[in-house]
Amino acid sequence: MAVVLEQRVLELVRNVAGEQRLRANTRTSVGLEPRMRVILVINSLRGGGAEKQILLIAEALMEFGLQCDLYTLAADTHSARLTALFSRCQERGVRFQSMQPRNGLLKEVTVLKRAASKSACSMVLWTWGRRSDFIGKLVALWLPGIRLLCSLRDTDKKKVRRLRWLERFAHRLVTGYVSNSQLSVDLLSQIVPRVRERAFILLNALDDEDVLQDLVAMPAERPKRVQVLLLGNLRIGKKGVDLAVELARRVKSHQLPFEFRLAGGGRPSEQRKLAKLIRQTNVGDIFHYEGEALDPVSFLRSGHVFFLPSRYEGLPNVLLEALNLGLPCVASRVGDIESLATDGTHLWLFRVGDVSQMFNVFKAIADDWSAAMSVAESGREFCRRTFSRAKMKERLGQILRQIAVRNE
């Protein structure tokens, strides 16, 4: 116990020291235009993953000495889980602006056009989400000198192809595409020419407060009922919830010691569909839907294994949070997970949609709990090493420098 505590203290000291060195050298090493202004646009701050990352980016921009405005298209408040990060951004000088709901597309374009044209600074408009991207392209059409960055976070091939006409027409207005996943870039490159030349990978990052979180208190012996957690928006097809229900049916028929708990907001139609699936498979005693998790970290702390059966993902932020807390994680081979982590060392991976592979992984966990704990420890170390805030800031500075050069 003393050795583990000493290792954690040393790790914390190294992280803090590295962050202090990075902040001290930011102004001189980043080499950005001192009067650059970045306007970030996203639908809302009510979610978790993408919203958390855009706030971390806004905070980093202020630390670079740049000006930063963050516009939300929906006039709602941020989610409770983002309160601390939101407050930090405000303290650093990020200016938050909310559009009035249902103002209309023209009004939103006009507001952003005025905000961009009034500034004497070098301007970067960075949009997150389909509606924001469309608005950003209209602004860029109106103001040809603006540098437009669009975030790629969709890995659903059908969705990308449905909008190919827009992307093919408007891609010339985009200075660069930023994605947390190479898969998103590869999908867009199939329908838009020369995307890779303008694409940048910016991995998700853990917040400093995430790193300071205590590990989940895992039992030394396997519990009689292992709590398997699923966390995310209730989109049954995209998130693979139907696959999780089928897995629960097989687990029950083989009397494996697992209980599944799903938390996340969802439309009433999705909730009804899930309830029907649970009834049809007769797994209501081991599969529970708990609604939206107001405190996702507390929810993750209440379980023993994290499960991500998604069919489409880029680099899911919730997986990083689960790894960081020291939970053993089981995930589908989606997005960039497989290229970043090692199967059986940092977590367990299975083919997308393959319930038989999922079952084999969970049977292995039930048979060898100590091996599961070793994988969880390796996963936590890998996560903190790969997805640090300092690395994200360094990469962000590189992207902005290249964007500045391209439009000169």
SSE topology sketch:
Blueprint: H1 2-30, E1 37-42, H2 49-63, E2 67-72, H3 83-92, E3 95-98, H4 105-118, E4 123-128, H5 130-142, E5 147-152, H6 157-162, H7 164-170, E6 176-179, H8 182-189, E7 199-201, H9 208-211, E8 226-231, H10 236-239, H11 241-253, E9 258-263, H12 268-281, E10 287-289, H13 296-301, E11 305-308, H14 317-324, E12 329-332, H15 337-340, E13 348-350, H16 355-367, H17 369-386, H18 389-406
Parallel strand pairs: 1-2, 1-4, 2-3, 4-5, 5-6, 6-7, 8-9, 8-11, 9-10, 11-12, 12-13
Helix pairs in contact: 1-18, 2-3, 4-5, 11-12, 11-16, 14-17
Characteristics of this structure?
408 residues, alpha/beta, Rossmann fold, 2 domains, 7-stranded parallel sheet, 6-stranded parallel sheet, 18 helices
Question: What does this molecule look like?
Answer:
The model is unreliable at 1-29 (pLDDT under 50). This protein has a 7-stranded parallel beta sheet with strand order 3-2-1-4-5-6-7, with helices on both faces. With 408 residues, it is of the alpha/beta class. Helix 2 (49-63) runs parallel beside helix 3 (83-92), helix 11 (241-253) packs parallel to helix 12 (268-281) and helix 14 (317-324) packs across helix 17. Helix content is 50%, strand content 15%. It has 18 helices and 13 strands. Strand 1 (37-42), helix 2 (49-63) and strand 2 form a beta-alpha-beta unit. It has helices spanning 2-30, 49-63, 83-92, 105-118, 130-142, 157-162, 164-170, 182-189, 208-211, 236-239, 241-253, 268-281, 296-301, 317-324, 337-340, 355-367, 369-386, 389-406, and strands at 37-42, 67-72, 95-98, 123-128, 147-152, 176-179, 199-201, 226-231, 258-263, 287-289, 305-308, 329-332, 348-350. It has 2 domains: 29-205 and 388-406, Rossmann fold (3-Layer(aba) Sandwich), CATH 3.40.50; 210-386, Glycogen Phosphorylase B (Rossmann fold).
